Amino acid sequence: MKLKKVYAFIHSVLMLTACGSAQAPVQETAQESTVSEETGEELLSLADITEETEAPVIGDTFSDENFSAEKRGTVILRYTEDEAASDKGALRIFNRNNAWDGAQYNAEKFRGNELEAEGSFRSANPDVRISVQYTINDNTTYNTIASVNTKEDSYSKCSGKYFIPKNAENIILYVESDRLEDIYIDDISVKVCGDYTYYPEAVPTEFVNTSDYPSLKDEYKEYFRIGTATTPNLLDKEPYTELIKAQYNSMTMGNSFKPDSILDHNKTVRDVEKYMYSPAVKFDAVKKELDYARDNGLTVRGHTLLWHNQTPEWLFYKNYNIGGELADRETMLLRMENYIKNVMEWTEENYPGLVRAWDVVNEAADDGGGMRKSLWYQTVGEDYIEQAFKFARKYAPEDTKLFYNDYNSYQTRKQNDIITFLRPVVEAGNIDGMGMQSHINVDISISQYMAALQKYYDELGLEINVTELDVCRGKGDDWQQEQGEYYKEFMSEILKLRKNGVPITSVTLWGISDTDSWLSSTYPLIFNDDLSRKPAFDGMIEAVKNLE
Ligand code: 9MR
Fold first, then answer.
1. CA separation for the pair 436, 402 (Å, rounded)
2. Which residue has its alpha carbon closest to ligand 1 atom 13?
3. Which one is catalytic: 52, 176, 219, 363?
4. Does pTM surpass 0.70?
5. What are 214-223's pLDDT values in tens digits?
6. Domains of the chain
Protein backbone atom coordinates (compact mmCIF):
# COMPACT_ATOMS: atom_id res chain seq x y z
CA MET A 1 0.00 0.00 0.00
CA LYS A 2 1.30 3.44 -0.97
CA LEU A 3 1.43 5.94 1.83
CA LYS A 4 1.92 9.63 1.82
CA LYS A 5 2.33 12.19 4.53
CA VAL A 6 0.01 15.13 4.88
CA TYR A 7 0.76 18.21 6.90
CA ALA A 8 -2.22 20.17 8.05
CA PHE A 9 -1.44 23.56 9.48
CA ILE A 10 -3.70 24.84 12.17
CA HIS A 11 -3.46 28.52 12.94
CA SER A 12 -4.36 30.15 16.14
CA VAL A 13 -3.52 33.79 16.00
CA LEU A 14 -3.25 35.78 19.17
CA MET A 15 -3.83 39.50 19.27
CA LEU A 16 -0.90 41.75 19.96
CA THR A 17 -1.28 45.43 20.55
CA ALA A 18 1.58 47.49 19.17
CA CYS A 19 5.09 47.28 17.79
CA GLY A 20 7.55 46.37 20.41
CA SER A 21 5.00 45.13 22.94
CA ALA A 22 5.74 41.80 24.55
CA GLN A 23 4.96 39.19 21.94
CA ALA A 24 2.40 36.66 23.07
CA PRO A 25 3.07 33.23 21.67
CA VAL A 26 1.25 32.19 18.53
CA GLN A 27 0.46 28.53 18.20
CA GLU A 28 1.21 27.14 14.79
CA THR A 29 1.00 23.41 14.73
CA ALA A 30 1.48 20.93 11.95
CA GLN A 31 -0.27 17.65 12.37
CA GLU A 32 1.29 14.81 10.49
CA SER A 33 -0.95 11.97 9.43
CA THR A 34 -0.64 9.11 6.98
CA VAL A 35 -3.15 8.69 4.20
CA SER A 36 -3.81 5.93 1.70
CA GLU A 37 -3.33 7.23 -1.85
CA GLU A 38 -6.02 4.85 -3.15
CA THR A 39 -8.78 5.59 -0.66
CA GLY A 40 -7.64 8.94 0.75
CA GLU A 41 -8.47 7.59 4.18
CA GLU A 42 -6.41 8.63 7.11
CA LEU A 43 -4.60 5.57 8.35
CA LEU A 44 -2.46 6.75 11.13
CA SER A 45 -2.14 9.93 13.14
CA LEU A 46 1.36 10.78 14.21
CA ALA A 47 2.13 13.01 17.14
CA ASP A 48 1.50 16.70 16.55
CA ILE A 49 4.59 18.63 15.59
CA THR A 50 4.80 22.19 16.80
CA GLU A 51 6.11 24.23 13.89
CA GLU A 52 6.09 27.80 15.16
CA THR A 53 5.33 29.02 18.60
CA GLU A 54 6.11 32.72 18.74
CA ALA A 55 5.97 35.93 16.82
CA PRO A 56 9.55 36.32 15.65
CA VAL A 57 12.04 38.75 17.08
CA ILE A 58 15.45 39.10 15.48
CA GLY A 59 18.45 41.22 16.24
CA ASP A 60 21.58 41.58 18.30
CA THR A 61 22.99 43.77 21.05
CA PHE A 62 26.58 42.82 20.18
CA SER A 63 27.65 42.63 23.79
CA ASP A 64 29.96 39.70 23.02
CA GLU A 65 31.12 37.49 20.18
CA ASN A 66 27.85 35.60 19.93
CA PHE A 67 25.63 37.31 17.43
CA SER A 68 23.20 36.13 14.78
CA ALA A 69 23.96 38.70 12.03
CA GLU A 70 25.32 37.12 8.87
CA LYS A 71 27.59 38.64 6.30
CA ARG A 72 26.19 40.10 3.10
CA GLY A 73 28.58 40.31 0.16
CA THR A 74 32.32 40.41 0.60
CA VAL A 75 32.39 41.79 4.13
CA ILE A 76 33.99 40.62 7.34
CA LEU A 77 31.88 40.90 10.51
CA ARG A 78 33.71 41.18 13.80
CA TYR A 79 32.66 41.81 17.39
CA THR A 80 34.64 44.76 18.68
CA GLU A 81 34.95 46.56 22.00
CA ASP A 82 33.77 50.09 21.49
CA GLU A 83 33.65 52.82 24.13
CA ALA A 84 31.08 54.73 22.10
CA ALA A 85 28.58 51.84 22.17
CA SER A 86 25.93 51.62 24.89
CA ASP A 87 27.22 48.31 26.28
CA LYS A 88 30.82 48.92 25.11
CA GLY A 89 30.44 46.26 22.44
CA ALA A 90 29.58 46.64 18.75
CA LEU A 91 29.69 44.85 15.42
CA ARG A 92 32.26 46.16 12.97
CA ILE A 93 31.47 45.56 9.28
CA PHE A 94 34.51 45.97 7.08
CA ASN A 95 35.94 44.99 3.71
CA ARG A 96 32.88 46.40 1.96
CA ASN A 97 33.04 46.53 -1.85
CA ASN A 98 29.46 47.41 -2.77
CA ALA A 99 26.72 49.60 -1.33
CA TRP A 100 24.72 46.52 -0.38
CA ASP A 101 27.63 44.81 1.41
CA GLY A 102 26.76 44.68 5.08
CA ALA A 103 25.13 42.50 7.71
CA GLN A 104 21.90 40.59 7.17
CA TYR A 105 19.20 38.51 8.83
CA ASN A 106 16.77 35.99 7.45
CA ALA A 107 13.34 37.56 7.90
CA GLU A 108 11.12 34.82 6.39
CA LYS A 109 8.95 34.63 9.49
CA PHE A 110 7.79 38.23 9.05
CA ARG A 111 5.99 37.39 5.80
CA GLY A 112 2.46 38.84 5.74
CA ASN A 113 3.13 41.02 8.80
CA GLU A 114 4.17 44.56 9.55
CA LEU A 115 7.55 44.77 11.22
CA GLU A 116 9.38 47.49 13.05
CA ALA A 117 13.15 47.62 12.69
CA GLU A 118 15.38 49.73 14.89
CA GLY A 119 19.14 50.13 14.92
CA SER A 120 21.97 52.26 16.21
CA PHE A 121 24.92 52.92 13.93
CA ARG A 122 28.12 54.89 13.54
CA SER A 123 30.15 55.29 10.38
CA ALA A 124 32.12 57.77 8.31
CA ASN A 125 29.47 57.05 5.66
CA PRO A 126 26.99 59.89 5.55
CA ASP A 127 24.04 57.56 5.75
CA VAL A 128 23.31 54.02 6.80
CA ARG A 129 20.11 52.20 5.96
CA ILE A 130 18.12 49.25 7.23
CA SER A 131 16.68 47.71 4.07
CA VAL A 132 14.68 44.67 3.12
CA GLN A 133 14.90 42.49 0.05
CA TYR A 134 12.34 39.98 -1.14
CA THR A 135 11.07 38.30 -4.29
CA ILE A 136 7.52 38.30 -5.59
CA ASN A 137 6.61 36.66 -8.90
CA ASP A 138 10.36 36.17 -9.58
CA ASN A 139 10.92 39.90 -9.24
CA THR A 140 13.28 40.95 -6.45
CA THR A 141 12.76 44.35 -4.84
CA TYR A 142 14.95 46.24 -2.39
CA ASN A 143 13.31 48.76 -0.06
CA THR A 144 14.56 51.05 2.65
CA ILE A 145 12.88 50.67 6.04
CA ALA A 146 14.84 53.33 7.91
CA SER A 147 17.91 55.49 7.33
CA VAL A 148 20.05 57.75 9.45
CA ASN A 149 22.70 60.42 9.00
CA THR A 150 25.58 58.74 10.74
CA LYS A 151 28.54 60.27 12.58
CA GLU A 152 31.97 58.76 12.76
CA ASP A 153 32.44 58.70 16.51
CA SER A 154 29.03 58.47 18.12
CA TYR A 155 25.97 56.34 17.49
CA SER A 156 22.74 57.52 15.85
CA LYS A 157 19.46 55.64 15.96
CA CYS A 158 16.82 55.07 13.38
CA SER A 159 13.66 53.02 13.18
CA GLY A 160 10.93 52.34 10.66
CA LYS A 161 7.95 50.14 9.97
CA TYR A 162 7.42 48.03 6.90
CA PHE A 163 4.76 45.59 5.73
CA ILE A 164 6.11 42.41 4.14
CA PRO A 165 3.60 41.15 1.55
CA LYS A 166 2.30 37.65 2.06
CA ASN A 167 3.36 36.58 -1.42
CA ALA A 168 7.02 37.49 -0.73
CA GLU A 169 9.81 34.90 -0.83
CA ASN A 170 13.46 35.02 0.23
CA ILE A 171 12.93 37.82 2.71
CA ILE A 172 16.20 39.28 3.94
CA LEU A 173 16.69 42.29 6.16
CA TYR A 174 20.05 44.03 5.94
CA VAL A 175 22.19 47.00 6.84
CA GLU A 176 23.87 48.88 3.97
CA SER A 177 25.30 52.23 2.93
CA ASP A 178 26.13 53.79 -0.44
CA ARG A 179 29.73 54.57 0.47
CA LEU A 180 32.14 51.83 1.38
CA GLU A 181 33.61 52.84 4.75
CA ASP A 182 33.15 50.50 7.73
CA ILE A 183 29.83 50.45 9.56
CA TYR A 184 29.54 49.86 13.33
CA ILE A 185 26.28 48.58 14.82
CA ASP A 186 25.63 49.07 18.53
CA ASP A 187 22.38 47.14 18.41
CA ILE A 188 19.59 46.22 16.04
CA SER A 189 16.18 44.68 16.57
CA VAL A 190 13.25 43.67 14.44
CA LYS A 191 9.80 42.98 15.91
CA VAL A 192 6.28 42.37 14.67
CA CYS A 193 3.74 45.21 14.85
CA GLY A 194 0.21 44.33 15.89
CA ASP A 195 -1.31 40.90 15.22
CA TYR A 196 0.99 38.14 14.09
CA THR A 197 0.02 35.59 11.48
CA TYR A 198 2.50 32.93 10.50
CA TYR A 199 2.78 32.17 6.79
CA PRO A 200 5.10 29.16 6.41
CA GLU A 201 5.48 29.93 2.71
CA ALA A 202 4.62 32.63 0.20
CA VAL A 203 0.94 32.71 -0.73
CA PRO A 204 0.95 32.51 -4.55
CA THR A 205 -0.57 35.45 -6.43
CA GLU A 206 -3.77 34.59 -8.27
CA PHE A 207 -3.86 36.88 -11.27
CA VAL A 208 -7.19 38.24 -12.44
CA ASN A 209 -8.35 38.25 -16.04
CA THR A 210 -7.37 41.62 -17.54
CA SER A 211 -8.57 41.08 -21.09
CA ASP A 212 -11.72 43.20 -20.73
CA TYR A 213 -9.96 46.33 -19.44
CA PRO A 214 -10.17 49.43 -21.60
CA SER A 215 -6.79 50.05 -23.23
CA LEU A 216 -4.68 53.01 -22.19
CA LYS A 217 -2.68 53.00 -25.40
CA ASP A 218 -5.83 53.01 -27.51
CA GLU A 219 -7.58 55.68 -25.47
CA TYR A 220 -4.55 57.96 -25.65
CA LYS A 221 -3.45 57.18 -29.18
CA GLU A 222 -4.45 60.54 -30.64
CA TYR A 223 -2.32 62.33 -28.09
CA PHE A 224 0.81 60.45 -27.02
CA ARG A 225 2.28 57.05 -26.24
CA ILE A 226 1.68 55.32 -22.93
CA GLY A 227 4.61 53.32 -21.63
CA THR A 228 5.73 51.08 -18.81
CA ALA A 229 9.01 49.96 -17.29
CA THR A 230 9.88 46.27 -17.46
CA THR A 231 12.35 43.71 -16.16
CA PRO A 232 13.16 40.46 -17.98
CA ASN A 233 11.54 38.35 -15.23
CA LEU A 234 8.15 39.95 -15.69
CA LEU A 235 8.14 38.79 -19.28
CA ASP A 236 8.10 35.14 -18.15
CA LYS A 237 4.54 35.51 -16.93
CA GLU A 238 1.65 35.42 -19.33
CA PRO A 239 -0.67 37.63 -17.26
CA TYR A 240 2.02 40.33 -17.56
CA THR A 241 2.87 39.86 -21.21
CA GLU A 242 -0.81 39.97 -22.14
CA LEU A 243 -1.47 43.07 -20.06
CA ILE A 244 1.60 44.93 -21.36
CA LYS A 245 0.74 44.48 -24.99
CA ALA A 246 -2.91 45.38 -24.40
CA GLN A 247 -2.19 48.53 -22.40
CA TYR A 248 1.09 50.04 -23.59
CA ASN A 249 2.80 51.04 -26.81
CA SER A 250 6.11 52.14 -25.33
CA MET A 251 8.50 50.33 -23.02
CA THR A 252 11.54 51.31 -20.98
CA MET A 253 13.90 48.66 -19.63
CA GLY A 254 13.98 49.39 -15.90
CA ASN A 255 17.54 48.15 -15.57
CA SER A 256 18.91 46.17 -18.47
CA PHE A 257 20.00 49.02 -20.78
CA LYS A 258 22.01 50.71 -18.03
CA PRO A 259 25.82 50.79 -18.14
CA ASP A 260 26.20 48.16 -15.38
CA SER A 261 24.25 45.68 -17.55
CA ILE A 262 26.02 46.56 -20.78
CA LEU A 263 29.68 47.08 -19.83
CA ASP A 264 31.72 43.87 -19.88
CA HIS A 265 34.26 44.09 -17.08
CA ASN A 266 35.89 40.68 -17.58
CA LYS A 267 36.49 41.18 -21.25
CA THR A 268 37.74 44.73 -20.77
CA VAL A 269 40.29 43.91 -18.09
CA ARG A 270 41.52 40.77 -19.86
CA ASP A 271 42.96 43.06 -22.53
CA VAL A 272 43.27 46.57 -21.13
CA GLU A 273 45.44 47.75 -24.05
CA LYS A 274 42.84 46.75 -26.59
CA TYR A 275 39.89 48.22 -24.68
CA MET A 276 41.67 51.25 -23.20
CA TYR A 277 39.52 53.79 -25.08
CA SER A 278 36.53 51.64 -25.90
CA PRO A 279 35.36 49.41 -23.03
CA ALA A 280 33.91 46.05 -24.10
CA VAL A 281 30.13 45.79 -24.17
CA LYS A 282 27.66 42.90 -24.09
CA PHE A 283 23.95 42.92 -24.75
CA ASP A 284 22.65 39.59 -23.41
CA ALA A 285 20.73 41.25 -20.57
CA VAL A 286 18.62 43.46 -22.79
CA LYS A 287 17.71 41.16 -25.69
CA LYS A 288 14.67 39.51 -24.13
CA GLU A 289 12.91 42.83 -23.52
CA LEU A 290 13.87 44.20 -26.94
CA ASP A 291 12.53 41.03 -28.60
CA TYR A 292 9.28 41.36 -26.71
CA ALA A 293 8.89 45.02 -27.66
CA ARG A 294 9.62 44.34 -31.34
CA ASP A 295 7.33 41.31 -31.51
CA ASN A 296 4.42 43.08 -29.83
CA GLY A 297 4.48 46.45 -31.53
CA LEU A 298 5.88 48.57 -28.70
CA THR A 299 8.60 51.18 -29.23
CA VAL A 300 11.41 51.57 -26.71
CA ARG A 301 12.84 54.45 -24.67
CA GLY A 302 16.54 53.64 -24.21
CA HIS A 303 17.48 54.25 -20.58
CA THR A 304 20.23 55.34 -19.98
CA LEU A 305 23.67 56.16 -21.44
CA LEU A 306 25.34 58.38 -18.82
CA TRP A 307 24.44 58.19 -15.15
CA HIS A 308 26.29 58.43 -11.83
CA ASN A 309 24.42 55.36 -10.59
CA GLN A 310 24.43 51.80 -11.95
CA THR A 311 27.66 52.64 -13.76
CA PRO A 312 30.66 50.66 -12.60
CA GLU A 313 33.42 52.66 -10.99
CA TRP A 314 36.20 50.91 -12.88
CA LEU A 315 35.10 52.69 -16.05
CA PHE A 316 36.52 55.95 -14.70
CA TYR A 317 40.02 54.79 -13.74
CA LYS A 318 43.34 54.81 -15.50
CA ASN A 319 43.86 51.30 -16.92
CA TYR A 320 40.47 50.44 -15.36
CA ASN A 321 42.27 50.00 -12.08
CA ILE A 322 40.03 51.19 -9.23
CA GLY A 323 42.90 51.37 -6.75
CA GLY A 324 44.79 53.87 -8.95
CA GLU A 325 44.14 57.34 -10.34
CA LEU A 326 41.09 58.56 -12.21
CA ALA A 327 41.54 58.51 -15.99
CA ASP A 328 42.28 61.82 -17.75
CA ARG A 329 39.76 63.88 -19.73
CA GLU A 330 40.96 62.74 -23.17
CA THR A 331 40.70 59.06 -22.22
CA MET A 332 37.25 59.56 -20.72
CA LEU A 333 35.98 61.47 -23.74
CA LEU A 334 37.05 58.57 -25.93
CA ARG A 335 35.46 56.02 -23.60
CA MET A 336 32.28 58.10 -23.59
CA GLU A 337 32.18 58.43 -27.36
CA ASN A 338 32.87 54.78 -27.98
CA TYR A 339 30.36 53.59 -25.40
CA ILE A 340 27.61 55.73 -26.94
CA LYS A 341 28.63 54.66 -30.44
CA ASN A 342 28.74 50.95 -29.60
CA VAL A 343 25.39 50.94 -27.81
CA MET A 344 23.60 52.96 -30.47
CA GLU A 345 25.09 51.07 -33.41
CA TRP A 346 24.40 47.63 -31.95
CA THR A 347 20.82 48.62 -31.17
CA GLU A 348 20.10 50.03 -34.59
CA GLU A 349 21.73 47.12 -36.38
CA ASN A 350 19.86 44.47 -34.41
CA TYR A 351 16.56 46.24 -33.77
CA PRO A 352 16.25 48.87 -36.49
CA GLY A 353 13.85 51.69 -35.64
CA LEU A 354 12.82 50.20 -32.30
CA VAL A 355 14.47 52.62 -29.87
CA ARG A 356 12.77 55.94 -30.58
CA ALA A 357 14.27 57.94 -27.73
CA TRP A 358 17.42 57.79 -25.59
CA ASP A 359 17.95 59.20 -22.12
CA VAL A 360 21.45 60.39 -22.97
CA VAL A 361 22.20 61.89 -19.56
CA ASN A 362 20.33 61.00 -16.40
CA GLU A 363 20.18 62.93 -13.11
CA ALA A 364 23.06 65.38 -13.65
CA ALA A 365 21.53 68.05 -11.39
CA ASP A 366 22.64 68.01 -7.78
CA ASP A 367 19.93 68.10 -5.09
CA GLY A 368 21.89 70.81 -3.33
CA GLY A 369 22.12 72.98 -6.47
CA GLY A 370 24.33 73.09 -9.55
CA MET A 371 25.69 70.03 -11.28
CA ARG A 372 26.21 66.73 -9.48
CA LYS A 373 29.91 66.07 -8.95
CA SER A 374 29.67 62.61 -10.48
CA LEU A 375 32.65 60.69 -11.81
CA TRP A 376 31.72 61.88 -15.29
CA TYR A 377 31.90 65.45 -14.03
CA GLN A 378 35.16 64.79 -12.17
CA THR A 379 36.92 63.15 -15.09
CA VAL A 380 35.62 65.01 -18.14
CA GLY A 381 34.72 68.34 -16.56
CA GLU A 382 31.65 70.49 -16.53
CA ASP A 383 31.04 70.26 -20.27
CA TYR A 384 30.48 66.50 -20.04
CA ILE A 385 26.75 66.87 -20.77
CA GLU A 386 27.43 68.85 -23.95
CA GLN A 387 30.00 66.27 -25.01
CA ALA A 388 27.64 63.36 -24.38
CA PHE A 389 24.85 64.92 -26.45
CA LYS A 390 27.31 65.78 -29.23
CA PHE A 391 28.35 62.12 -29.48
CA ALA A 392 24.78 60.91 -29.13
CA ARG A 393 23.71 63.12 -32.04
CA LYS A 394 26.65 61.89 -34.11
CA TYR A 395 25.70 58.21 -33.77
CA ALA A 396 21.90 58.28 -33.29
CA PRO A 397 19.74 57.25 -36.24
CA GLU A 398 18.01 60.22 -37.82
CA ASP A 399 14.61 60.04 -36.11
CA THR A 400 15.84 58.95 -32.69
CA LYS A 401 15.07 61.62 -30.10
CA LEU A 402 17.69 62.59 -27.52
CA PHE A 403 16.56 63.36 -23.98
CA TYR A 404 17.88 64.67 -20.71
CA ASN A 405 16.11 62.93 -17.80
CA ASP A 406 15.85 63.84 -14.10
CA TYR A 407 13.79 63.56 -10.93
CA ASN A 408 12.24 66.51 -9.03
CA SER A 409 12.80 68.44 -12.22
CA TYR A 410 9.56 70.35 -11.60
CA GLN A 411 11.11 72.02 -8.52
CA THR A 412 12.07 75.61 -9.18
CA ARG A 413 15.74 75.53 -8.22
CA LYS A 414 16.43 72.23 -9.93
CA GLN A 415 14.58 73.35 -13.03
CA ASN A 416 16.65 76.54 -13.23
CA ASP A 417 19.87 74.54 -12.90
CA ILE A 418 18.76 72.12 -15.60
CA ILE A 419 17.77 74.93 -17.94
CA THR A 420 21.18 76.54 -17.39
CA PHE A 421 23.21 73.47 -18.23
CA LEU A 422 20.99 72.34 -21.11
CA ARG A 423 20.99 75.71 -22.86
CA PRO A 424 24.30 75.19 -24.70
CA VAL A 425 23.16 71.68 -25.69
CA VAL A 426 19.99 73.17 -27.15
CA GLU A 427 22.01 75.85 -28.95
CA ALA A 428 24.21 73.17 -30.47
CA GLY A 429 21.07 71.41 -31.72
CA ASN A 430 21.95 68.19 -29.94
CA ILE A 431 18.92 67.63 -27.69
CA ASP A 432 15.26 67.04 -28.50
CA GLY A 433 13.52 66.45 -25.22
CA MET A 434 13.20 66.81 -21.49
CA GLY A 435 12.41 63.65 -19.52
CA MET A 436 10.41 64.33 -16.36
CA GLN A 437 10.93 61.24 -14.19
CA SER A 438 7.97 62.19 -11.97
CA HIS A 439 8.41 60.03 -8.88
CA ILE A 440 5.83 62.08 -7.04
CA ASN A 441 3.21 61.79 -4.33
CA VAL A 442 -0.33 63.01 -3.82
CA ASP A 443 0.88 66.16 -2.04
CA ILE A 444 2.81 67.50 -5.02
CA SER A 445 1.09 70.51 -6.57
CA ILE A 446 -0.14 69.55 -10.03
CA SER A 447 -0.26 73.19 -11.12
CA GLN A 448 3.40 73.71 -10.13
CA TYR A 449 4.32 70.56 -12.05
CA MET A 450 2.43 71.68 -15.18
CA ALA A 451 3.95 75.17 -15.00
CA ALA A 452 7.38 73.52 -15.05
CA LEU A 453 6.54 71.56 -18.22
CA GLN A 454 5.36 74.76 -19.86
CA LYS A 455 8.62 76.47 -18.88
CA TYR A 456 10.87 73.73 -20.33
CA TYR A 457 9.01 74.20 -23.58
CA ASP A 458 8.96 78.00 -23.48
CA GLU A 459 12.60 78.41 -22.53
CA LEU A 460 14.25 75.54 -24.36
CA GLY A 461 11.72 74.52 -26.99
CA LEU A 462 12.05 70.89 -25.92
CA GLU A 463 9.51 68.14 -26.40
CA ILE A 464 8.42 66.53 -23.13
CA ASN A 465 8.24 62.90 -22.00
CA VAL A 466 6.94 61.90 -18.58
CA THR A 467 9.38 59.05 -18.17
CA GLU A 468 8.98 57.32 -14.78
CA LEU A 469 5.59 58.23 -13.35
CA ASP A 470 4.54 56.82 -10.00
CA VAL A 471 2.41 58.52 -7.36
CA CYS A 472 3.08 57.44 -3.79
CA ARG A 473 0.27 57.46 -1.32
CA GLY A 474 0.78 54.60 1.13
CA LYS A 475 -2.22 52.88 2.68
CA GLY A 476 -4.59 54.73 4.96
CA ASP A 477 -8.14 56.02 4.80
CA ASP A 478 -9.47 56.05 1.23
CA TRP A 479 -5.97 55.70 -0.14
CA GLN A 480 -7.01 54.09 -3.41
CA GLN A 481 -9.62 56.79 -4.13
CA GLU A 482 -7.34 59.67 -3.25
CA GLN A 483 -4.57 58.29 -5.43
CA GLY A 484 -7.06 57.63 -8.24
CA GLU A 485 -8.25 61.24 -8.14
CA TYR A 486 -4.66 62.43 -8.33
CA TYR A 487 -3.87 60.28 -11.37
CA LYS A 488 -7.04 61.54 -13.04
CA GLU A 489 -6.28 65.20 -12.43
CA PHE A 490 -2.63 64.76 -13.35
CA MET A 491 -3.49 63.18 -16.69
CA SER A 492 -6.28 65.69 -17.39
CA GLU A 493 -3.82 68.54 -16.92
CA ILE A 494 -1.20 66.81 -19.07
CA LEU A 495 -3.79 66.45 -21.82
CA LYS A 496 -4.78 70.11 -21.48
CA LEU A 497 -1.20 71.23 -21.76
CA ARG A 498 -0.80 69.03 -24.82
CA LYS A 499 -3.89 70.60 -26.38
CA ASN A 500 -2.45 74.03 -25.62
CA GLY A 501 0.63 73.26 -27.66
CA VAL A 502 3.22 71.81 -25.25
CA PRO A 503 4.63 68.85 -27.21
CA ILE A 504 4.15 66.01 -24.70
CA THR A 505 4.89 62.84 -26.65
CA SER A 506 4.77 60.06 -24.06
CA VAL A 507 3.80 59.21 -20.50
CA THR A 508 5.54 56.16 -19.01
CA LEU A 509 4.64 54.54 -15.69
CA TRP A 510 7.59 53.16 -13.71
CA GLY A 511 6.44 49.55 -13.46
CA ILE A 512 3.22 47.60 -13.84
CA SER A 513 1.79 46.54 -10.48
CA ASP A 514 2.58 47.87 -7.01
CA THR A 515 4.59 44.72 -6.35
CA ASP A 516 7.03 45.45 -9.18
CA SER A 517 7.56 49.03 -8.16
CA TRP A 518 10.89 50.16 -6.70
CA LEU A 519 8.67 51.92 -4.14
CA SER A 520 6.37 48.95 -3.53
CA SER A 521 5.78 49.89 0.10
CA THR A 522 3.98 53.06 -1.00
CA TYR A 523 1.72 51.36 -3.60
CA PRO A 524 2.37 53.98 -6.29
CA LEU A 525 1.18 52.33 -9.51
CA ILE A 526 -2.10 51.67 -11.32
CA PHE A 527 -2.52 47.89 -10.92
CA ASN A 528 -2.69 45.80 -7.75
CA ASP A 529 -0.39 42.79 -7.30
CA ASP A 530 -2.92 40.45 -8.89
CA LEU A 531 -3.20 42.92 -11.83
CA SER A 532 -6.68 44.01 -10.82
CA ARG A 533 -7.16 47.66 -11.78
CA LYS A 534 -6.90 50.38 -9.18
CA PRO A 535 -8.87 53.65 -9.20
CA ALA A 536 -5.57 55.08 -10.51
CA PHE A 537 -6.03 53.12 -13.75
CA ASP A 538 -9.68 54.17 -14.02
CA GLY A 539 -8.62 57.75 -13.32
CA MET A 540 -6.23 57.69 -16.27
CA ILE A 541 -8.97 56.35 -18.52
CA GLU A 542 -11.56 58.86 -17.29
CA ALA A 543 -9.14 61.77 -17.84
CA VAL A 544 -8.93 61.05 -21.55
CA LYS A 545 -12.57 60.11 -21.99
CA ASN A 546 -13.70 63.38 -20.35
CA LEU A 547 -11.39 65.55 -22.42
CA GLU A 548 -13.32 68.43 -23.95
O1 9MR B 1 13.66 50.69 -11.30
C2 9MR B 1 15.04 50.65 -11.07
C3 9MR B 1 15.31 49.73 -9.90
O4 9MR B 1 14.95 48.41 -10.22
C5 9MR B 1 16.78 49.79 -9.53
O6 9MR B 1 17.00 49.05 -8.36
C7 9MR B 1 17.20 51.23 -9.31
C8 9MR B 1 18.67 51.31 -8.96
O9 9MR B 1 19.22 52.54 -9.15
O10 9MR B 1 16.92 51.97 -10.48
C11 9MR B 1 15.56 52.03 -10.72
O12 9MR B 1 15.25 52.95 -11.71
C13 9MR B 1 15.65 54.29 -11.49
C14 9MR B 1 15.84 54.91 -12.84
O15 9MR B 1 16.77 54.20 -13.58
C16 9MR B 1 16.28 56.36 -12.72
N17 9MR B 1 15.38 57.11 -11.91
C18 9MR B 1 15.08 56.55 -10.61
C19 9MR B 1 14.58 55.12 -10.77
C20 9MR B 1 14.18 54.56 -9.43
O21 9MR B 1 15.29 54.41 -8.60
1. 13
2. 254
3. 363
4. yes
5. 999 999 999 9
6. 57-192 (2.60.120.260), 216-545 (3.20.20.80)
